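During data preparation, we tokenized the protein backbone, and the record follows.
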Amino acid sequence: MKVKVGVIFGGETVEHEISIITAVQAMKYIDPEKYEIVPIYISKDRIWYTGKMLMDIEVYKDFEHLKRYAKKVAFYKKNGTFVLQTVGMFKRVVEELDIMFPIMHGNNTEDGSIQGYLETVGIPYVGSKVLASAIGQDKVIMKQVMSSINLPIVPYTWFYDINYYDENEKILNEIKELGYPVIVKPATLGSSVGITVVKEESKIDQAVREAIKYDVKIIVEKVIENLVEVNCSVLGNYKYQEASVIEEVISTEEFLTYTDKYIGKSKGDTTKGMVATNRVIPARIDNKLYKEIQELAKETFKVMNLSGVARIDFLIDNKKKKAYVNEPNTIPGSLSFYLWEKTNKPYKKLLDEMLSIAIKDFKTKSKKIYSFDTNILSNFNGLKGGKGLKGIKK
């Protein structure tokens, strides 16, 4: 009997389309001999849809016109079974699910939001859990966690948008102390959205205000000179971690942009995801640094308590031969499958291992104690102070 996998993607996020690309790619490679795929698309207005048509990338080029062919659904647990049920007056169950596979990027989705919902319903799911997902989406908190175990990170400062307006001079001085050039980023976005490199103080205000368009929390980092950007994917969970080959990413700008990552030289064909990125595999770095980065990637994965597949991005000062952990991506674009193919792990096998890890982790978690059979409210005597609770103690 096949395992029914709900592949969930989309959502209200600036990385909505990237999520669709990654999900459609993955659905083509999930082993049809072992798994039955149930696509679950969340539109930008947060409506849930299902239907086999959603496995075709062409549908999303004019979804408003074609959405009438998909089923609007709600997801919940019914009589011990996880189901997708149609919405409206005449409700009916259209699918039963065994496990969820979130393939979502950015705020309101990858940041622990969808993971929290799946935890509440109780269904097993692939990938990092709520806390790890939330930390992995916040560039400030992730740096605070990494610095707590002395992982190498670049000098930075951060602030909220309201602080920038109220304490402008203080914050500008803190940025100046980092030393220009700096890079300004929205703290909780991915895919290089809202990012600006600032080489001189006169341009910093414009860059900060651009980032504030996307987020209430802003991070400013010192730009690494003689920069080489490399990425390493990690597969596993808290028990074990396996590192992929390392890629060197080639940017046409001062940092790896949205266009570099998802469009590249594909002449407008954005269906390739991260595969469109200009890259060199393996990265052109010496063997010692190569092994060091793989170990740093696994250590970052473990301390963040990540699960499934993640991609850890690094910045290298090529002159000093020093690597800095930039950030982990808890659900990386294209699930970094191209790095695992170079590690002799085909995409079908990678997806199978991710699903297997999720099932094993769910079984492990199910053995832990999360609630008690006793009901302390059974002897509760109304709202008369603490009398009811006193009775329990006796």
